[in-house]
Amino acid sequence: MAADVIVLGAGIIGVSVAVQLARRGKSVVLLDRRGPGEETSFGNAGLIQREGVVPYGFPQDLGLLARYSLNNRIDAHYHMAAMPKIAPFLARYWYHSQPARHAAISRSYAPLIEHSVTEHSILIDEAKAGDLIVKNGWMEAYRTEAKRDDDFAFAERLARDHGISHTKLTQQELAQAEPHLSHDFVGGLKWDDPWSVLDPHSLTMAYLRLFESLGGTFVKGDAAALSQTPTGWKIQTENGLIEAESVVVALGPWSDTVTTRLGYRFLMGVKRGYHMHYAPQDGTKLNNWLIDAERGYFLAPMKKGIRLTTGAEFADRDAPKSPVQLYRAERVARTIFPLGGRLDAEPWMGARPCTPDMMPVIGIAPRHKSLWFAFGHAHHGLTLGPITGRILAEAMLGETPAVPIAPYAAERFNP
Ligand SMILES: Cc1cc2nc3c(=O)[nH]c(=O)nc-3n(C[C@H](O)[C@H](O)[C@H](O)COP(=O)(O)OP(=O)(O)OC[C@H]3O[C@@H](n4cnc5c(N)ncnc54)[C@H](O)[C@@H]3O)c2cc1C
């Protein structure tokens, strides 16, 4: 089979790239070794984070780092044995998180985030997936006045600099919004602009169906089988040999499967995360996507139940699951909300694909004229799928991307 483009990886990023290319008239084959959206994109917290203009930096406060080093927290956990391997990534991540650099990165990152909800909105309409979306922002609940006031000040900065809307909630207002939440909280903050997704996997599948309705084809195969031809690329798949002029690598945390063989180095790391679903106890309801801000875990009222998601685990991507954060979080979550029984046989785990400078890689490969990259979306892959697909497709077609893509170029790691 011949196509214009092969997209490797059918997570939310690969599906979004494929659909944006197909919408622009390209013939596209989308390839994955599993079903679409079954890896990292399957189990996230479901937020389209329009407020997320400042990427999550590596802590700079030595006191906080010392507390993290005890390795007993909910929001972060690490595997000691993985440290020698991941230390170079962590060192660069720390370097890029220093205040002046972090501020510059945020300025480059914010334009992508600005298009997150609007670009999803277009695909949600075309995919007729509106029933999966809740347009009601999300909430932070605070145990201390100090954290609440810090975050209020941060929200005011985002309102001033980026036009992000928020609502400050008193203890009473939080209790009204969430009548079954415990009284451990002194107040809350509602980010008004984000949307949330009742089942992230179903949204990826809705975008996949849109892609197929536009003539695109999904096939199963191993991206490691990719090779160059005199005119482009070829790959053996379960549907036979596919040849195409161009290839897009959208393999999320596995992007090195292809990039390393082709001579590129990205110093990527992963932040692994877990989820588990719970039934609410009889007669109770969680109304909002909500973070227990000082503890660092999330509760999301999804289709499959209340999804508890965890923060960052620094570990080897392929190491066995170690869901200690999930169990710690569950113990605390049960004290703030009447969670019922676990609904999954075992915790789900995904690996957020992270670059050390907190921005994704989007654009052409420096030394191959028909090889394109779209990976490294860390905490915001769901948020940024459609806009990533749009600007990559525009660049591939020789158009001016809706957001200038120079800040996301692969050259920053491969000069
Ligand atoms: C707990 C948690 C909560 C999160 N919450 C949010 C949130 O609320 N909002 C948000 O925006 N983001 C969130 N994220 C981040 C988001 O889920 C990721 O950024 C996103 O899913 C990355 O998508 P991707 O398509 O790059 O990667 P993936 O979804 O991992 O897709 C990569 C694909 O490549 C395929 N693949 C790998 N190797 C091969 C191979 N050799 N051959 C063929 N195919 C291969 C895989 O099967 C997979 O389908 C969260 C992540 C976690 C873990």
Output the radius of gyration.
21 Å
Mean pLDDT, nearest integer?
Answer: 97
What is the second-level CATH architecture of the domain at 1-52 and 97-130 and 198-268 and 355-415? 3-Layer(bba) Sandwich
Low-pLDDT residue spans: none
* Dominant shape: globular
Fourth-tier CATH superfamily name of the domain at 1-52 and 97-130 and 198-268 and 355-415: FAD/NAD(P)-binding domain
Distinct ligand kinds: flavin-adenine dinucleotide
Total DSSP helices: 11
Structural class: alpha/beta
Notes on the protein architecture:
Strand 21 (about 360-365) and strand 22 form a beta hairpin. The protein has a domain at about 1-50 and about 95-130 and about 200-270 and about 355-415: FAD/NAD(P)-binding domain (3-Layer(bba) Sandwich), CATH 3.50.50. The chain is built from 11 helices and 22 strands. It has about 425 residues and is an alpha/beta fold. The strands form 4 sheets. Strands 6, 7, 8, 14, 15, 16, 17, 19 and 20 form a 9-stranded mixed sheet that branches. Strands 1, 2, 10, 11, 12, 13, 21 and 22 form an 8-stranded mixed sheet that branches. The radius of gyration is 21 Å and the shape is globular. Helix 5 packs across helix 11 (about 380-395). Flavin-adenine dinucleotide binds near residues 11 and 275.
Which tags fit this structure?
9-stranded mixed sheet; 415 residues; binds flavin-adenine dinucleotide; 11 helices; alpha/beta; 22 strands; single chain; FAD/NAD(P)-binding domain; 8-stranded mixed sheet
